[in-house]
Amino acid sequence: MINPQVDESPVDEVSGKIKNKGLAQWVEEVTATCRPDRVHLCDGSEKEYQEMQRLMLHAGTAIALNLEKRPNSILVRSTTLDVARVEDQTYICSATKEEAGPNNNWEEPAKMREKLTKLFTGSMQGRTMYVIPYCMGPLGSPISKIGVEISDSPYVVANMHIMARVGAKVLEALGTDGEFVKGLHSVGAPLEPNEQDAAWPCNSKYKYICHFPETREISSFGSGYGGNALLGKKCHALRIASVQARDEGWLAEHMLILKLTSPEGQAKYITGAFPSACGKTNLAMLISTVPGWKVETIGDDIAWMKFGPDGRLYAINPEAGFFGVAPGTGMKSNPNAMLTVTKNSIFTNCAMTPDGDVWWEGMTDEKPEELTDWLRRPWTPASPRVAAHPNARFTTPASQCPVIAKEWEDPKGVPIDAILFGGRRASVVPLVTESFDWQHGTFLAATTSSETTAAATAKVGQLRRDPMAMLPFCGYNMGDYFAHWLKIGATRGANLPRIYYVNWFRRDDKGKFLWPGYGENSRVLKWVFERCNGSAQAVETPIGRLPAPGALDTEGLDISGESLAKLFEIDVKGWLAEVPKIKDFFAGFGSRMPKELEQEIEKLEQRLKK
Ligand code: GTP
Ligand code: SPV
Ligand code: MN
Hints:
The chain has three domains: 11-61 and 86-249, Phosphoenolpyruvate Carboxykinase, domain 1 (3-Layer(aba) Sandwich), CATH 3.40.449; 253-320 and 407-609, Phosphoenolpyruvate Carboxykinase, domain 3; 321-400, Phosphoenolpyruvate Carboxykinase, domain 2 (Beta Complex). The mean pLDDT is 96. The strands form seven sheets. Strands 11, 12, 13, 14, 15, 16, 24, 25 and 28 form a nine-stranded mixed sheet that branches. The protein is globular and about 75 Å long. It is an alpha+beta fold. α1 (11-17) packs antiparallel against α2 and α12 runs antiparallel to α13. The structure holds guanosine-5'-triphosphate (GTP), sulfopyruvate (SPV) and manganese (II) ion. Guanosine-5'-triphosphate is lined by residues 274, 276-282, 300-301, 324-325, 327-328, 333, 455, 504-505, 513, 517-518, 521.
């Protein structure tokens, strides 16, 4: 029998425990609308985490993994209806459509609220409503922000425990009238008194991930998965925070943060924005193949960057854990991620081995002889399908990463020297390009394009523009977002990081990757580091500065001269074909598109035609 020992107080007791007036009132309102059976105020304790695991085990949502192989860890399988972010059903409900921009779905706030109120009415019947106070960023950092997620999903509570700082200490920091972002989440599957729950409750008909940037509110209905449901992550730390960042003069970006140390012991901090499932987690914890160079991790997905008193840009990782792509992660490709997930982790939509461990494509060279796949079916290597869902994920504490940098929770953040942008491009785009200046760098970032991945529910492998890797995450008109980047360049001048464009995914005529990637990307990081120090050479090309012959360290690298030449080839015809596509894309932002970036495309065209 399920005997949850969590403190499931009736609502008046819970709101009595909440000193923050705004929060107490909101909890009462939500309770009245959603009509849960019980309300639980999360304290963030280990006991609470264990209770969430137990609830999920009893409900059939989770399976406990083999204690000896994967201590304190569970496997959760969702349903085919709920496996990734739903970009089609994600809305920015700003006052006007213009404000949300062509990059977002928009609905009138009042209209959307009406729709949501209908959906949320009684939506938590038969369930427990969890009130999860969380802090994005280290508690006490001037860059951090507080939010409260109300959710009817124990899976969300457990994930939030890992991904953010949650519980009593956050309530304490919030005080009696502190401000916070309101995030309401329901899986949208109310239960009748005698109705049996699903192993993965969600709403098969309606999914809405809605943001109200003006009032800093989030409403998420119908999905329990990832960025749809863990509201501190993409909804708060990117969509809402990007609006706050614009208003307050800082940057909220879809970026990893790493620390790179040279053999001489000099450290630089680098951020990198690549679209979903394009290599941020991998780069953030790579093991350098260049002797003496070392990478340590600060963050793997989101960076909040503010200017310090010295005029430099400082970044914090607002998250406390990694929600990483499992497939492709193995001891060869990303040993540090594998070592991070050895315990205390949640695995979602991975396959299971007969001895109670998890497996996914790319974890080992040899496939296990038998598995239970993510759809709970028997699986063998002869099966005509993958065993783990392509967007299978692990949720794991950042503190467990063997190469977590000692300053990863430094409240003042780390000073950034270089920013990388990049995507998956099979052709045209070279391995690394340095921008001429901030404006040109902003242009390169704004033209970021990538083949789509399984991180979102849409066709995989289609080329799309994904400026700054923020297309699905920018909470306002992207034309204004570009202007915000340019304004930072114009007002902050000298101390700004340098901007680079990278592409680990260029292929040869046979479709094979030209660049080995992963740990070998340290060679590119080294060149970037040395450029920042003024010690590495570059050559000017029409598209930007490329490593001068011999400047990229290829010692000990097994790569043919032909492949290397192809990696750095300036495909003038290919670039000239890009120009009208970029112009079209920019034109989509109409009068909100900054003139400076339109000039950059003209300048690129002229340089190419010279
Ligand atoms: P999100 O969490 O969705 O934002 O993804 P991410 O950007 O952190 O991507 P991640 O590092 O998890 O990598 C996604 C996939 O790309 C994995 O299957 C990796 O194996 C693969 N990948 C990462 N780095 C490289 C690389 O340098 N070369 C190649 N060929 N593949 C890579
Ligand atoms: C991404 O899609 O960029 C992710 C995963 O990091 S999710 O949290 O689902 O957005
Ligand atoms: Mn991401």
